[in-house]
């Protein structure tokens, strides 16, 4: 019997025009090429190739067989290339990922490392939207998101991946001019910048929690100045007229000598961030990017 490998060997040998050169290409001994083709000729009951040290020539039967197999072999090569691409794609993920990332959290913890992901996975196209507004993952057409709230859609997969505590800050010039409150109750005697939730509602008070004891004190915040993004805290602090909220891992620009933490034993809020994605999203590229995001937030990039 003969197999498809023998027919492919015949075609390759004809195209190369030599037993010895075919053997070099296939990295086998020349005798192995010659033996397999001669065995195939025996099974066919006809000579296909006249070959000597000086001459390589197809017989009439060999020419007919080559003409018959040539187009079939091209189809086989196409099939093999398609199969190789299929296998390669399985291990080299590709496609587009549409993702929503929080504006502040991403600034220092995720965005600086996005090019690394793109370099590592060149066939994945990232479409990143930086948003602090509410979204509908399904209707808005996103694949996954990091949100600081639990979405209303019950069918989504949700995992808490990062928590961060908010503290209050002032400038040294503010401290010299107005003093620094020593207890949460004294905050009512200062100009404290308030906050606006992601849904647009005003945060009515700061829940000052003692890091050591867990004691909680509710402090009402005046509404004279409210913000929805602490990335603008530094210029507000530089006015030397207000106490402003901030987050250590987000507001790295607050780590300066002229900025002071107010009530360092207290935090006024803890933000929880959730990785949200579709329950059916088992695509390898989604898993890879989800793992990447987790590593970013664990500072393991």
From the structure above, extract its key features.
3-stranded antiparallel beta sheet, alpha+beta, 9 helices, Arc Repressor Mutant, subunit A, D-Maltodextrin-Binding Protein, domain 2, 24% strand, 3 domains, 301 residues, 7-stranded mixed beta sheet
Helix/strand-derived category reads alpha+beta
Radius of gyration: 35 Å
Average pLDDT, rounded to a whole number, is 88
Helix content: 25-40%
The residue ranges in which pLDDT falls below 50 over 5 or more consecutive positions are none
Assembly state (oligomeric) = single chain
Query: What's the story with the biggest beta sheet?
Result: 7 strands, mixed
Helix and strand succession? HHHEEHEHHEEEHEEEEHEEEEH
Strand and helix layout:
Blueprint (H helix, E strand, L loop, with lengths): L3 H13 L2 H8 L3 H15 L4 E3 L4 E3 L1 H32 L3 E7 L1 H7 L4 H7 L3 E7 L13 E4 L9 E15 H7 L15 E2 L9 E6 L5 E5 L5 E2 L5 H5 L6 E4 L11 E4 L3 E2 L1 E9 L6 H14 L4
Helix pairs in contact: 1-3, 1-4, 2-3
């Amino acid at each position: 019997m003969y197999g498809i490998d023998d027919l492919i060997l015949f075609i390759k040998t004809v195209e190369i025009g030599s037993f010895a050169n075919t053997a070099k290409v296939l990295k086998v001994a020349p005798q192995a090429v010659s033996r397999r083709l001669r065995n195939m000729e025996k099974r066919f009951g006809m000579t296909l190739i006249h070959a000597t040290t000086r001459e390589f020539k197809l017989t009439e039967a060999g020419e007919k067989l080559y003409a018959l197999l040539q187009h079939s072999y091209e189809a086989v090569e196409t099939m093999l290339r398609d199969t190789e691409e299929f296998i390669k794609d399985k291990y080299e993920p590709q496609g587009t990922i549409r993702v929503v990332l929080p504006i502040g959290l991403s600034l220092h913890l995720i965005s600086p490392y996005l090019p690394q992901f793109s370099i590592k996975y060149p066939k994945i196209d990232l479409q990143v939207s930086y948003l602090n507004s509410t979204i509908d993952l399904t209707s808005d057409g996103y694949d996954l998101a990091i949100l600081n709230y639990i979405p209303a859609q019950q069918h989504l997969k949700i995992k808490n991946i990062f928590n961060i505590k908010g503290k209050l800050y002032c400038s040294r010039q503010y401290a010299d001019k107005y003093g620094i409150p020593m207890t949460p109750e004294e905050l009512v005697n200062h100009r404290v910048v308030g906050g606006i939730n992601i849904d647009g509602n005003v945060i009515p008070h700061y829940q000052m929690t003692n890091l050591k004891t867990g004691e909680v004190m509710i402090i009402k915040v005046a509404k004279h100045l409210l913000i929805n993004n602490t990335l603008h805290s530094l210029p507000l602090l530089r006015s030397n007229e207000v106490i402003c909220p901030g987050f250590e891992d987000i507001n790295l620009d607050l780590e300066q000598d002229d900025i002071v933490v107010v009530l360092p034993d207290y935090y006024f809020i803890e933000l929880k961030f959730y990785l949200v994605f579709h329950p059916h999203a088992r695509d390898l590229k989604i898993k890879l990017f989800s793992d990447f995001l987790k590593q970013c937030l664990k500072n393991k990039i």
